[in-house]
Design a protein that fits this description.
single chain; Ubiquitin-activating_enz; ThiF/MoeB/HesA; nine-stranded mixed β-sheet; 667 residues; NEDD8-activating enzyme E1 regulatory subunit; 24 helices; 4 domains; Rossmann fold; NEDD8 activating enzyme activity
């Protein structure tokens, strides 16, 4: 089957550019748990470029691990039925029973035993022959040198040396996404730090009993969203802009006066754009007694109040000769709001543009004089530099055009005769092309200024392709960025006494921009969320269960195992009491101790301890259907991070399988 046919449906969601981004990405999965493999499965199926499964196992001794690190990771093995014996002991159908995931030796019948990473890699690779799969087995994920691992993947990614059906990897992956599945803080915190330093996005997923969550850590400095894909996009027709652009003015002038048009057929085929423009002129002269002023410097009146808007709609309705037979006038009434909707960029877009500083861009874009043969790379990823370049060009464009962004150049379907519709379409397309050319010229000027300021040094960024400029300009009204706090910084706030924090250097927390601001905003967001609990049963509010899960992590930090390991009743109750203690501390550290909802449902010892007993009862069990839900959500967000399309959640999705409810919170 041709690749374009196989991916036909998803191409309708994220297009060819999104599919290219997916195909140029390597996903690194740490931990082959059910949640991890479910997440990766949903990325292999749509055609991610390659993936690497890293997990612990007896297959690698400490000396073998050193050799493996030096040699690189391994291609997925070929499996036969003798290697796979699925049993009741396994909670992950991507893995056989533990008896077959063992030492990497023989089982007495000359059957090679493979590690969890090798088997899950092989089974996931079977889902899509276009995707390259690799595995890497280490003695333990705790204490692994993630700095060396990530650096090797970035500089020397694994490649397919065989003649498999998958395409050989010959170039560096343009993007890397790391997924940590069901890992303790002793793994996620150092991993979070290294990903933050290398500007690599990180997804942390967890399935724990009937609960689960997915947490996004965006790449630094932020995640750029060029195509937000808003479902309620307003057509960019510029009917409220003044003066009208020349092409639209010329097309509108082809219809002199609708009231004097005798031909009913012709009258019923005038596009609603022209109808609304004539209605505006009529409304100014008759309804508000504000006659047209030909001076382009004087902005004419537009409907503003509710009554003025209603009067305008009535005027449009009265202009029809026979409303029941004139669909174009029905469209005009329906789209009347386009005459007063402000086409300037929103405050949200202005906030995005304010984040892009010209001096910082120049500093990041210039290659250092110490670079040897262009080998050094910018601390800011290439795709972010391109976004910043176009954003700076857009800022200058807005200053020149009264805050109006480049025209999209697309008009909606409308009732019209062919000649007028084509003329209207060509007018909008021509103006959009002119605006895009202006953006391109400004971008070139910015790069020239950057070179001059650096005495002619080479740059890490160049003019984007025509397709990229077209995409940026078409979506200029909906640009977004997402910046999340690093996981290790979040953890310091929630559990500052955690022994795991000692893994990190004291200087790790010094270079986190806007730390206090993000913390204050997160606290305010969480307090606001407490006013919207789960209605059916407030105790099932996902945030309460997330605090319980974080308390389990705090328990692990102190005891190196999760609560519930010892099944004696006294031990379980003791674990529950300790988990509850951590829950109260975390709630206090989050600034929630004064919230009435938290006081009633968590700080109240009876209700809070019920939550603690429930998570202790789980004993870190993983239920595959819960893992499938969390993995499905996580993979959806992974696609958003990879493609730069749609808006990911900010920043943690919590799933409560007890009540089948979920919430998104910012920590």
């Amino acid at each position: 089957m041709a690749t374009t046919d196989k991916y036909d449906r998803q191409l309708r969601l994220w297009g060819a550019s999104g599919q290219r981004a997916l195909g140029n990405t390597m996903v690194v999965l740490l931990g082959s748990s059910a949640c991890g493999t479910e997440t990766l499965k949903n990325l292999v199926l749509p055609g991610v470029g390659s993936f690497l499964v890293v997990d612990d196992g007896d297959e690698a001794s400490s000396s073998e691990a050193a050799d493996a690190a030096a040699q690189g990771v391994q291609k997925c093995p070929e499996l036969d039925s003798s290697m796979l014996q699925f049993g009741e002991q396994s909670s992950n159908f991507f893995l056989p029973a533990p008896s077959k995931v063992a030492t990497g030796g023989d089982d007495g019948n000359n059957n090679k035993k493979l590690s969890k990473a090798a088997i899950s890699c092989a089974l996931l690779s079977e889902l899509n022959p276009d995707v390259l799969g690799f595995h890497y087995t280490v003695p333990s994920l705790e204490g692994l040198d993630y700095s060396a691992l990530l650096e090797k993947i970035k500089q020397d990614p694994p490649s397919d040396g065989s003649s498999s059906s998958a395409t050989t990897t010959t170039t560096l992956p343009q993007k890397i996404l790391v997924i940590a599945a069901d890992q303790p803080s002793t793994v996620t915190l150092p991993l979070s730090y290294e990903c933050h330093n290398r500007s690599i996005p990180l997804l942390v997923v967890r399935s724990y009993g009937l609960l689960g969550y997915a947490r996004i850590q965006t790449a630094t400095p932020y995640h750029c969203i060029t195509e937000a894909k808003k479902s309620n996009r307003i057509p960019d027709l510029r009917l409220s802009a003044w003066p009208l652009f020349e092409g639209l003015k010329n097309v509108a002038s082809t219809v002199s006066n609708l009231d004097e048009m005798d031909d009913t057929k012709d009258h019923s085929h005038v596009p609603f754009v022209i109808v609304l423009l004539q209605a505006l002129d009529k409304w100014r002269g008759t309804v508000v007694s504000a006659p047209f002023n030909p001076d382009p410097a004087v902005r004419p009146r537009y409907p503003e109040t509710f009554q003025e808007k209603e009067d305008f709609r009535k005027l449009v309705k009265g202009m029809a000769k026979n409303l029941n037979n004139e669909i174009n006038f029905e469209e005009s009434i329906r789209e009347a709001h386009l005459t007063w909707v402000d086409g300037r960029v929103s405050d949200e877009v202005k906030e995005v543009l304010d984040r892009v500083d010209e001096k910082e861009f120049f500093a990041s874009a210039v290659k250092s004089e110490m670079d040897v043969e262009g080998s050094a790379t910018s601390s800011v990823p290439a795709h972010v530099l391109q976004f910043q370049l176009l954003a700076l060009a857009l800022k200058r464009f807005l200053k020149q055009n009264d805050d109006y962004p480049p025209l999209e150049g697309k008009i909606p379907d409308m009732t019209s005769d062919t000649a007028r519709f084509v003329a209207l379409q060509e007018a909008y397309q021509k103006q959009a092309e002119q605006d895009r050319a202006t953006i391109c010229e400004i971008a070139k000027a910015l790069l020239d200024e950057c070179k001059q300021a650096s005495n002619g040094c080479d740059l890490h960024v160049s003019i984007p392709s025509d397709d990229e400029i077209v995409t940026f300009c078409k979506n200029a009204r909906y640009l977004r960025i997402l910046e999340t706090r690093p996981l290790f910084a979040e953890y310091k706030v929630q559990d500052p006494a955690s022994p795991t924090l000692s893994i990190l250097k004291p200087t790790s927390f010094e270079n986190i921009p806007n730390f206090d601001t993000i913390q204050a905003d997160a606290r305010d967001d969480l307090q606001s969320a407490m006013f919207d609990p789960y209605e059916t049963d407030p105790i099932q509010t996902p945030l309460l269960w997330w605090i319980a899960l974080r308390a389990c992590d705090a328990f692990y930090d102190r005891h190196e195992h999760y609560p519930g390991k010892h099944e004696q009743e006294l031990a379980l109750e003791s674990d529950a009491n300790e988990v509850y203690k951590f829950m109260t501390q975390i709630a206090t550290n989050l600034g929630l101790s004064e919230c009435d909802f938290i006081k009633e449902h968590l700080l109240d010892s009876s209700k809070g301890k019920d939550l603690a007993r429930e998570v202790v009862r789980y004993d870190e069990a993983e239920i595959h259907n819960i893992a499938a839900v969390v993995g499905g959500v996580a993979s959806q967000e992974a696609v958003k991070l990879i493609t730069g399309q749609y808006v990911p959640f900010d920043d943690t999705y919590v799933y409560n399988g007890i009540a089948s409810t979920a919430g998104v919170y910012r920590f």
